[in-house]
Amino acid sequence: KGKPDGRGFSDLAMALGFSGYARASGEARWRDAAKETLLKVVRLYDLPDYYPAVGREYLGPKAALFPGARVLAVWLRIIGTAASIVEDASDPEVRDVLDRSTAAVLDRHHNPDHGLTNEFLAHDLSRPANVYSRLVHTGNAIETHRTLLSEAVRTRNRGLFDTAAARFRVHVEAAWDTVFGGVYRCLYDVERNVWDLAKELRAQEETLSGALIIIEHTGETWAKDLFGRTY
User: Which of 101, 90, 85, 88 has the alpha carbon at shortest distance from 36?
Assistant: First the structure.
């Protein structure tokens, strides 16, 4: 028997499944289950001692503990799950979660000093004064902004679409391997330009998906070129 997922990712995946089944079956009880599971994870995430070992999944087992961290990968999954729930039924409580999570990504994780989106913030959404302040997980940032592009299309929010498209492009270009092609997964230290040179498939797929959304709704030449290079 394995240990429970302290991050809440498994529960969020389950909530997303409940939401999809509610949509397919028309049974509201599954949407209620999705909402209940989502809000349970949000309560967990809001604890000041939330998952202290989260940084070790990025920097290895010797990385400093970081209890209560705000993590881009968590907001990403909360946004996707909350958007799925409110797509079928208006729910002010879930809508508040979605709006709060989107604002955290756009207004707080975005770092104007270098134009990229930091993976980690302190619990109060301030910038940590340690190695975590310099970490940009480009794979997560690309997927997050692709998710926000999808949400902007769903809600017909052109301002959100334009912001997400611009930041999606910045992260893809920063992570692009100009020699062999494709995007790198993670920038460990933005100030020293230290990269994880892995190219996980997810990051390439999210690059393709984001480019397609932008092509469909704007026809931008750069997005067409990006899709072609990535494919």
Answer: 85
